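Batch job 17 of 40 flagged for manual review because the log was empty.
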Amino acid sequence: MRVRDLGYLAVFLTAALPLEAWWLMRGGVAPDLAAWMPLAVIYGLVPLLDVLLGRDRSNPVDEAQAQRLDAQRWFRVLTWLCVPIWLALLVFCMKQITTLPLGPIGQLGWLLSTGTIGGVLAINVAHELIHKAGRLEPLLGGIALTSVGYFGFKIEHLRGHHVRVATPEDVSSARLGESVYPFVLRALIHNPRAAWRLEVERLQRRGLPPLSWHNEMLRWSLLWLLMLAAATLWTGWAGALFFIAQGIIASATLEVINYVEHYGLRRVRDAQGRYERVTHLHSWNASQRLTNWLLFQLQRHSDHHAHARRRYQVLRHHADSPQLPTGYAGMFVLALVPPLWRRVMDHRVRDFNARSAMPAQA
């Protein structure tokens, strides 16, 4: 294991942020202020540290090194550990929303902080896990996604998004000029429906009824209802509403990142109307060292779409992929201000499309 790979432990610092906010409250910091501390770190400090710590464009030197890295169990265990840690953190945050002396502003900060961290520890980790073979990792990924109520992502992402990425048929690929707000709303509404449709089609091909235990969407729905019932019995309606709301925030956080990852990029059709094969040219890449540690190299998204089964520790940086000007934390904030986003990104999309002989989409 390389020394640089110890950086992936930074993901657990994200899990510690609500605990640190709670500690600040107990130390005398105004609760309504401390509740916003995790967001200030993620969207304020992390982009700054991305600049200070620089970029990491290194790749495995050869296939033998890549295979050695892929075989090291330590990398897998890190992602497995995130699931129970996230579930414990969710329980902690749910309890605190009902006991801390928070006003409306503080409650909003605590909710947004929890949901944002859920986007990192639940959805991002689940994204790594559901792509893997076997039973354990997809199961862990499904549990993590269910904890934020976005379990349809497991189906739609694998069977929908990875097939249709960078085409008009993919709801999770933003068009050039599209604002993040309608994009996120459309994705949150459409993707669960698409997941249901894809699952029904799978069952029909196997001659099985949609309303049966074979339906994965129904199984995850039942687990989510059990989680909601447990939250209600333990913390009352306030905890139940928090459980639902943090899931919506986490899911919306994911879709903002989807917006960033594929904005304006399109695959072209051949003479027969078929889309070109997905390559590392159809997703935005970012090489900021810290954010790649925090997100298990999700920012090497170009290589992920070209080689979806590759584990995070062996994903490659491609210099000819479209490059984001900063890491995902900074791009997330930028996306929330559409005029500034378009000023920064639209000319990059057009320039890259022109270099790649791809028509820009207006």
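Reviewer: the log was empty due to a logging misconfiguration, but the result itself is present. Residues 358-362 have pLDDT under 50 and may be disordered. Unflagging and moving on to job 18.
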